[in-house]
Amino acid sequence: MSKLFLRKRNSAMFGFREINQFCPIIIALLTGIFAHAGDGDYAISKIPQDLLKNANAIKRMDETILEISSLNKVKWYQKFAVTVLNENGDQYAQLYRSYDKLRSVESIEGRLYDVNGKKLKNLKKTDIQDLSGISEISLYEDSRVKFHSFYYKAYPYTVEYEVQVVFNNTYLFPDWIPQYDEKVAVEQSSYSLICSSNFKFHYKPFNYPGDPKVTEEKNDNVYKWEIKNLSPMADQFASPPWETRTTCVFFSPDKFEISGYSGEAGSWDNLGRFQYELNKGRDQLPPAIKQTVHALTDQVVDPKEKIRILYEYLQKNTRYISIQLGIGGFQPFPASEVATKSYGDCKALSNYMYALLKEANIKSCYTEIKSGKDEKFFMPDFPSDQFDHIILCVPLRIDTVWLECTSQALPAGYLGGFTADRF
């Protein structure tokens, strides 16, 4: 459900007939970005030696433009080139762009170059695979993936891609993380954000020298971040989160729209209100389930014991199955549907447990969290969607009980390494 992994994305290829519909700012920026490299431009001999040491791949150039037309229309343009030095770098030469009801992939172009920067091949439209985007944890999703690889093995080689994606919302706000990992160097990367003076956003940089360059063009502001010559790093055990070691900038709009819902991200309180609106009215239980709740808990005095009983009831009567449809990555299915079908994802099961506790007159909190054993990077001073999982928090008078509603084995109050010890 996370905007983080939203670092996620058919028509004719990009051409000047389409450009003519854009504003002059976009035309000027795209003129440079989408100019094709000439023979020799990507020759490996032109890479600074400091970037080659300990690298598996070199990002030769990476130009991104994000144009905010309105709260429900965002155009995302990117051109990037990666030189692959060895087999370990092949993964960076592959192109993945997800799409669903929230975004569409408008066009993809690509080219393959040899060690001397000579163009060997152009990507054909028929070379692009259109695959199901169902993740290994999901039963069904409505997302799909545009995928391409040149499958070239004569090292070193260079791939160049141009991609255009259109978002129908401003919730999925792409961040800028030019350096993929420790074994990838960056020769040049930039990120330009174009928006009206009325569009407000906040951003948080890491290891970026100074402020973005800001220019004004008619009624639009253009913000540009650019970095050059990021060398590979040593891959050390127990090192700090990658985001704090490399150069990157995170973005979040102050106001946004998604699938008919409006929200604000200027504060954690406002983001919480947005999630509340997504959840509102989805905690209604069928009469038979309400009767079961009372039969199980009405004679129990201790609130903690009531929680345990209802949690075990949840575990025995539901199964975790991920189904992501529409805005299913952000909004839970109704509790009544979980009660009927006896399954749900983390959002649906947590919302169902919330409803069970509510019927027993126990207050709980639907809680967003970032999951994963080593995923503890968090920006508490940067209100934004940094989460990918839901659990339930049950505050009591002198204690708090945490519930992992996707597990059929964990005892009430125990989370484990997947979600413990973090925000």
CATH fold annotation of the largest domain: Immunoglobulin-like
Number of strands: 22
| Shape, principal axes of CA atoms | elongated
* CATH class wording of the largest domain: Mainly Beta
Mean pLDDT, to the nearest integer, reads 89
Tally of DSSP helical segments = 9
CATH architecture type of the largest domain: Sandwich
Count of domain modules: 2
What is the CA–CA distance across the termini? 16 Å
Which regions are unreliable across 5 or more consecutive residues at pLDDT < 50? 1-22
Radius of gyration: 24 Å
Biggest sheet, spatial arrangement of strands: 5-4-9-2-1-10-13-12
Global structural class: alpha+beta
Short description:
By secondary structure, the protein is of the alpha+beta class. The protein folds into two domains: 4-266, Immunoglobulin-like (Sandwich), CATH 2.60.40; 279-403, Roll (C8orf32 fold).
